[in-house]
Amino acid sequence: MAFGKKAAGATPRFQPFDLLSTLIAVVSTNGSVLFANAALEDALGTSRRTLEGSQFGACFHEPHVLRTAIDGARSNDFATLRYEAFLRRVNHELMPVQVTLAQGDKSGELVIEMSPLEQQVRQDREERLLDQAQANKELIRNLAHEIKNPLGGIRGAAQLLQMEVESRDLIEYTQVIIHEADRLQTLVDRLLAPHRRPHVVGDVNIHEVCERVRSVILAEFPRDLHIERDFDVSIPEFRGDREQLIQATLNIVHNAAQALAERRAAGDAQITFRTRIARQVIFNKQWYRLALELHVIDNGPGVPDTIKDRIFYPLVSGREGGTGLGLTLAQTFVQQHHGVIECDSVPGRTDFKILIPLP
What we know:
Largest sheet: 5 strands, antiparallel
Helix content: 40-55%
Strand order of the largest sheet: 2-1-5-4-3
Number of strands: 12
Number of helices: 10
C-alpha cells in the first residue's frame, strides 16, 4: 500500500486533534508525518498537504534531537519524553516550544505535542493564580471573621468609655478609636463582600457593561481623559452576573485612570476598551471553543516591577493610600464566571485582559 493512501486513511481518526489549540503531529517511527492538526499548520505557515508524508525533523532547528527521541520511543526506552526545542517556521523564524512525545494508540505511531513556551508559561502562571486565589479566599474569609468580632468589642468599649469620661481630650481619643474601628469594619466588609452577595445570573451584553463603566469613569474624570471604544459587535450575549462584571471592570478602569495622573496633566491620557472573540483557548485548566476577550488598555507608566507578579494578591497596591483590594475583587468576580484576568504591562502600555467562556 502506498504511504499516501495510508496517511489519507488515518486522517479521520486524528481529526479530533483539530479541536485543540496545542500543536499536534502524528508521525511514524521513521519520522514521516501521518497527520498535522490545524494549529500546527497555522504555527508553521505550511499546509497539512505539504507536511503529511514529509520528514517532521525538517521542521526543527535541530532535527537530530527529534530523531534521537523517535529512536528511543521505537526501542521502548520511555513511554513519554519531554524536551525543549525550536520549530522552524516557513519564514525561517524560530519558535521555542516544549515537545512532548508519546506512543500512539497503534503500533508504529507516535504523537508529538508542542506547546509554545510563552503559552506554557502563561498556563503555569494561570494555574498559580488559580491556586493562589483559592488560598487567598480562604485566608481572607477566616481572617475577616477573626477580626470582625474583637473589632465590634473594641468599638463598643470605646462608646461606653466616651459616655463615662468628661475630659474633652479623652473624648477625642475615644472618637479616634471609634473612627478607626469603623474604617477597619468597612475594610472587612469589602473583603467579605464577594462571598456574601448572591450570584444573580441573567443575560449580559459586554458592551453595555463597558458603556456603564465608561460613563462612571468620565463622571469622575471629566477632563483630560479619553476613553476609546474598539468593539466587536458580533460578540453574543452570555449568562452572567451583570453587576459583578461591571464592578470588576470598573475596578480595573479606575486603577488605570488613577495611574494616568501624569498623562492627564499632560493632556494625552487614554484608555481603550477592546472586545474580541477568542477561539480554541485554554485557561483555568479548561479548553473552550469560544471565549470573550475584553481588553482594558492604558498608556500609563505600567505596573511596577516590584509588584507585577503579585497585583492580584489582597492588600498589594502600587499606589500610595490604595487598599490593594480592587484587583483582588475583580479577579474573584471574573473567576465566578469561570474566567480569568491577565495582565501584560510595560511602560507606556498596560493591558488587562478579561477572558470569559462564551456559549
